[in-house]
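Record type: ASSEMBLY
Status: queued
Input:
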Amino acid sequence: MAKITLKNLRHSYLPHPKGAEDFALKEIDLDWQDGGAYALLGPSGCGKSTLLNIISGLLHPSEGRILFDDKDVTDLPPDQRNIAQVFQFPVIYDTMTVYDNLAFPLRNRGVAAARVDERVREIAEMLEVTEMLGTRASHLSPDNKQKISMGRGLVRDDVNVVMFDEPLTVIDPHLKWKLRSKLKELHQRVKATMIYVTHDQTEALTFADQVVVMQEGEVVQIGTPVELFERPQHTFVGHFIGSPGMNVLDASEANGKVSFEGQAIAVEGKVTGQGGATQVGIRPEFVSLSNAGLEARVRKVSDIGRHSVVEAMVGDTSVKAVVEGDAPTQGEAVHLAFRQDQTRLYRDGWIATEASA
Amino acid sequence: MKTENQKAWFFVLPVLLLVAFNALIPIMTVVNYSVQETFGDNLFFWEGLGWFEQILRSDRFHAALGRQFLFTFLILIIEVPLGIIIALSMPKKGIWVPVCLVTMALPMLIPWNVVGAMWNIFTLPDIGLLGYFINNTLGIEYNMTRSPVAAWVTIITMDVWHWTSLVVLLSYAGLVSIPDAYYQAAKIDGASPWKVFRYIQLPKMKTVLTIAILLRFMDSFNIYTEPFVLTGGGPGNSTTLLSIDLVKIALGQFDLGPAAAMSLIYFAITLLVSWLFYTLMTKDDAK
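Status: finished
Output:
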């Protein structure tokens, strides 16, 4: 178990990177607290797998250092870092039994047979695969194979961190949910630091205490699921998290006054900075239909069960609102109200309002 | 109610005819010869299983069969490990991949009788590059027309040169299909290079290796052209493999009955060994 520190980490897959665009990872400074459950969330190609492989030692970063508990491990190979990694596709040793698969990492490290047996049975119990211990691993179903892959990561009690690289990709939807709650339960039992890489916000938000959102090789925001949802630091986070994502509306700002489609908009607090491209961000959950406010025409209504998503046009801009109860019909003229304490201004993508007291 | 008609047979008919002409009829001709005796003039006398009994009891057949098994065993024990080692040391990406692959494929593209002739000249003690080098530069006596050991060394070397590439190419195909994640997981699990080979590479190559061994077994067990051109079965009978002996009986002595019986026994042995091997290798997967 250890605290993991990433210092000024940069990585490029090119031998001689020139500009910032050549870097798959641009300047990462991060601390992962011991025993935390983290998710690394971002779209495909944002550099999250690269970051993971750098922590595990499968990749050597172009620049920067990796510290485990203040010990520099940047130049150590994976097996000396005491980490475990679970891959997108289950990696199992086909010719071995489930038992031998689980015992493999321990036996390679010369752990005594009695101790191996004890650990393997303990982990098998946790993963509910005890009755499969004698079966050949190649005969298992994909979800059980993935469980064994996880088990091999968890079987060593000295691992610094267990990393999951989109581990549920090949699992059937109804089993995904089961495995995810299993993972959460495992984290509470083994108390190891866990980093879970995914592009699926549901997986990230249900698993992690802290979510790290990445975009184009940069960390955009680190926070609890609630923080990410309620106060996105960047329009990307607003877009990416939530379903539907945040409304990001082109707006103009002058002397702290914000207006959208020619109408003044009240934002949460004092506007900071100046210049740049400005946008208003508000989650559809905080847009409501009212008697006064922005005039809009309903373009589309999607019923998503308990509530409806209403897409309305204010001038040429579409604004989404989540409406409970009776929804307006298509073509109807409505008025939209923005809840002030949830309305924020973004300047060049980054938040530019102070939180209301 | 399903409507039944027999029209489907017409679709199978062309295949049946083809198979009949290229396999069934020739084999039945051989079966026909194997139970009869002829003295020419197209006159045949019923012989029953006599020829089979004669062949199975013949020392000459036992000796040829023994040489055949020894030959196949030797080339397999050399070509399979060597092929795997070469495949393992070949690059996985980059411009050297096509270079290696083409170089590897070259020996297999050469016609079999040319291979025999090439090696015949190559090993001649007076003018052959290899033969001259061994005899005169190294001072070791090496003449495959005189020494059975030299003859055996030569036909084995020739086969290894000609066919190891097949094992290499098949093993290589198996190796490149292993996803990187397996190697990464093994690294993290702290597996030694030997364990990576034993538990990842070998199991993943198993299917292609089974095919490689099966192909090499059948080809080497039926080998004719190359040793015939190279040694003609000599010196003496020391490299007279089954096929060479068979041709001697059939075309040299024109003993059609015994030759037919021997062909069928030969065929049965090849089939039996191939079947046994394949069944054993695929037994685990079926479970």
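Annotation: Chain A has a mean pLDDT of 83.
Annotation: Chain A has two domains: 4-230, 243-351.
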